[in-house]
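Researcher: Sequence recovery benchmark, item below. Answer with residues only.
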């Protein structure tokens, strides 16, 4: 809004999430009581710090690299680059991460629940995005019907369902889930909007 040009947006982006580093895991010094057993939790803390790196570096480097790509190529190249990078990440996870311990209890995959919730979420999101179009309300209604069907199905299946919706009956869990939803919307909503809208703005500026 206050940028004099489109190029200033990716240039100023690295300064914006700088305050996130103060919220990185294990930033606050532990209390005296928490020092007990810290050696046993050292590996967990190290894993948490490693997992936090993409969260801290992604919003800083992503828009900057996207701006560099768009300066020399069209916006589809963003997807051409992200595809191999994502495939390399999956391959590294398969090769480097340790295998999970064998579960003492294995339950079958809930194909019926998957068939209800997956198209329901897709139709709901597409309906919200296309609410002003002719197909938007119909997709939105279909998404609501599929999700409502999944909720009724999951209540009957109980623990065997893809998602045990009975957990939301626990007040602590439901309140925490709602608070986390709005916290993620506030923190990450703009990060999703900038990569979606910035390429369009840059492409229009190049075509002008």
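Model:
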């Amino acid at each position: 809004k206050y940028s004099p040009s489109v190029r200033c947006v990716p240039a100023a982006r690295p300064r914006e999430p700088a305050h996130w580093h103060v919220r990185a895991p294990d930033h606050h010094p532990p209390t005296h009581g928490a020092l007990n057993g810290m050696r046993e939790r050292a590996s967990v803390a190290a894993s948490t710090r490693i997992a936090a790196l993409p969260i801290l570096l992604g919003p800083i480097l992503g828009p900057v690299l996207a701006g560099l790509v768009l300066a020399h190529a069209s916006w589809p190249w963003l997807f051409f680059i992200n595809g191999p990078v994502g495939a390399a990440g999956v391959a590294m996870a398969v090769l480097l991460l340790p295998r999970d311990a064998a579960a003492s209890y294995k339950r079958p995959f809930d194909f019926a629940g998957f068939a209800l919730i997956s198209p329901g979420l897709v139709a709901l999101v597409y309906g919200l995005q296309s609410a002003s179009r002719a197909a938007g309300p119909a997709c939105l209604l279909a998404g609501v019907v599929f999700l409502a069907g999944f909720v009724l199905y999951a209540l009957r299946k109980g623990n065997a369902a893809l998602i045990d919706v009975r957990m939301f009956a626990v007040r602590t869990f439901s309140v925490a889930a709602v608070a986390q939803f709005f916290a993620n919307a506030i923190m990450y909503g703009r990060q999703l909007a900038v990569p979606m809208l910035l390429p369009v703005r840059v492409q229009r500026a190049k075509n002008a």
